[in-house]
Amino acid sequence: RRDFLKPLAALAAAGAVPPVWAAGREAFTVYGAPAMPSVIIAVAAAQGQLAKQADVSLQIWRTPDQLRAGVAGGRFKVMMSPSNVGVNLRNQGRKVGMVNILTNGIVELAVKKPIPRPQDLIGKKILIPFKNDMPDIVLQALLKKLGIDFGRVQASYAATPAEAVGLFLTRDFDGVLLAEPMVSACIMRGKAMNINVARGFNITQAWGQAFGTRPLIPQAGLIADADYFRANKAKFDLFHQDLKAALAWIKAHPQEAAQIGKNFLPAPVPALAAGLPHANLTVTAAREIKGEVMKFYEELLRFNPRLLGGRLPDDAFFLA
Fold first, then answer.
1. pLDDT tier for residue 133 given thresholds of 50, 70 and 90
2. How far is residue 95 CA from its own chain's centroid?
């Protein structure tokens, strides 16, 4: 597998399989989130077996609204999303379902001074990107479970993670809620600016303790148009194996994986390499983790039914 790295620089720089390789072949485009699990997709697209049969490519959506618009318009057939978004879309009448989970918890808190417990957020100025999306949801649901009034946290919102990092480092915020690799990028940018940035309390661990579950938040993964999935089931089965092989390769080659990731994610190679161990990456088929996912959805439904479109998903939502 080492040999694939030589042509990969040009491949990744283009953000897709080169058209000359894919002449006459059907496209298999995955729309990934601007977060670490997309590195798994990028590696699988480059070195996987499916790439020998189809034009496999990764494109990154920038905001959750762009993701929703792509699904609603029918352009996005395979996409990585926060795990509640697929349910919400399905309950709005979109024919989508879950393929897998790619992270067991990727939300982290970057801080300028120690915040060792959720209770220590009270009175602190915290920045959160993407209002009412996964980082915001996880934090608010956690605090509610612990009996902490979110109104006692001085929360402000940014349009994107990159904007949140910039504001955090240049203003008087105490913490910023981010997904990897942006946490590691924030720490490194802070160091360059002589600002000591560290990780706060472990949100995934705190979630498990608060809800009496394993320290696991099935936070994001692949969803797909259900009709497209059924019509291309063999391709999805092969791609699942490609993703599992890619994850194993990433764990063994973090620096090389970071070189690939830099072409898709807004973070430098050192931040990507540093963030990989903190991203809780996994490749778990939807039905294999259905129990954990449903527990998570039940908690979200108790917290705010609108996050799921008002109800839990039906069994057919779990595609693979």
1. confident
2. 21
- The answer for residues whose C-beta is within 8 angstroms of residue 256's C-beta and 6 or more apart is 5
Q: Which helix (H) or strand (E) holds 145?
A: helix 134-145
Cβ 101 vs Cβ 282: under 8 Å: yes
Closest CA to 265 of 35, 31, 49: 35
Task: Tell me phi and psi for residue 304, to 5 degrees.
Answer: -160, 100
Strand partners, 41: none
Query: pTM here?
Result: 0.88
Unique residue bearing structure tokens 């694939």:
4
Query: CA-to-CA distance for 318 and 125, rounded, in angstroms?
Result: 38
Q: Sheet of 198-199: strands edge to edge? A: 154-158, 125-129, 175-179, 107-111, 198-199
Residue 101 tokens, joined: 């989970």
**pLDDT tens digits, 166-194:** 999 999 999 999 999 999 999 999 999 99
* d(C-alpha 149, C-alpha 134), whole Å: 19
- Cα gap 103→83, rounded to integer Å: 10
**CB-count exposure of residue 314 (10 Å: 0-12, 13-18, 19+):** exposed
**Strand pairing class (125-129; 175-179):** parallel
Q: What is the pLDDT of residues 143-167, one digit of tens each?
A: 999 999 999 999 999 998 899 999 9
Rounded-to-integer distance, Cα 284 and Cα 243, Å: 10
CB 133, CB 61: distance < 8 Å: no
Q: Please, are residues 270 and 188 in contact by the beta-carbon 8 Å criterion?
A: yes
Is residue 170 classed as helix, strand or coil in its secondary structure?
A: helix
CA gap 293, 289 in Å, rounded: 6
